[in-house]
Specification:
42% of the residues lie in helices and 14% in strands. It has a single domain (4-249), classed as TIM Barrel (Alpha-Beta Barrel). With 252 residues, it is of the alpha/beta class. The protein has helices at 16-30, 48-54, 81-86, 97-102, 107-120, 132-136, 140-152, 181-198, 201-206, 217-224, 241-249, and strands at 5-9, 38-42, 61-64, 91-94, 123-128, 164-167, 209-212, 231-234. The chain contains eleven helices and eight strands. The protein has an eight-stranded parallel barrel with strand order 1-2-3-4-5-6-7-8, surrounded by six helices.
Length: 252
């Protein structure tokens, strides 16, 4: 009952012209294919208008990679959820590990950003995941459930399924080291169990949990076969159409 959801996070790649070309390639490749999987892309801010315009009426969803906690104000260089909504963006990543590690997004800021998404009518894709040292110390469950509690703790139960969760173990991001399907499944089951404990049953049943970290065509199928993995958040392999489409093929 949970449709798979595959999102390409382009990170700081693809200016407007390159982004438009990639969006166009995806649009052509996906036209006429059965839409059994939800597909989205997350270009950098500067390329959002080109991609939104290119993908209009295609069913391919567009996400931003970040937003500010406030709607407007004297925050030079920042972009608000309200602006993203006006630009036609539907989703927004929140709490990506690169934001947490390199740009100071703490649990408290991540929570504010989740709420900023809801205020602006954007659907959050909330990223959680442990560092290598945390996994080696056996703390991965504790870290991930702490991140979940901080970000989702104050939401109403009926808001939670609008959040796509993305479990991205930091040690698997951009390293070529994927979590094994069992390692990923184990954490996804922990996350679903956490939802079950805190919210009415429909929340755990319907909330989608993506896996992210070195997903590619060659490993997508076995990851997507796991019962609690509902899609993928893809970095490197989303930067060209062929590699990204190979991942979509793995979801069939
Ligand atoms: P890679 O697929 O390049 O490991 O990146 C994963 C990621 O961070 C997606 O948000």
């Amino acid at each position: 009952m949970r449709r798979k959801f595959i999102v390409g996070n382009w990170k700081m790649h693809k200016g407007p012209a390159d982004a438009d070309a990639l969006a166009d390639a995806l649009k052509r490749a996906l036209a006429g294919r059965d839409a059994s999987v939800d597909v989205g892309v997350a270009p950098p801010y500067i390329s959002l208008p080109a991609v939104v315009s290119r993908l209009k009426h295609t069913g391919i969803l567009v996400a931003a990679q970040n937003l500010h906690t406030e709607q407007q104000g004297a925050f030079t260089g920042e972009v608000s959820g309200e602006m993203l909504r006006q630009a036609g963006v539907a989703y927004c990543l929140v709490g990506h590990s690169e934001r947490r590690q390199l740009f100071g997004d703490t649990d408290a800021i991540v929570e504010k950003k989740v709420h900023a998404c809801f205020r602006s009518g954007l659907l959050p894709i909330l990223c959680v995941g442990e560092l290598l040292a945390e996994r080696e110390a056996g703390q991965e469950r504790e870290v991930v459930t702490r991140q979940l509690a901080a970000a989702l703790g104050k939401l109403q139960a009926d808001q939670v399924p609008s959040v796509t969760l993305a479990y991205e173990p930091v040690w698997a991001i951009g390293t070529g080291k994927t979590a094994s399907p069992l390692q990923a499944q184990e954490m996804h089951a922990t996350i679903r169990g956490w939802l079950e404990e805190r919210f009415p049953a429909f929340v755990a049943r319907t909330t989608r949990i993506q896996y992210g970290g070195s997903v590619k065509g060659s490993n997508a199928a076995e990851l997507m076969r796991m019962p609690d993995i509902d899609g993928a958040l893809v970095g490197g392999a989303s930067l060209n159409a062929e590699d990204f489409l190979a991942i979509l093929d793995g979801c069939r």
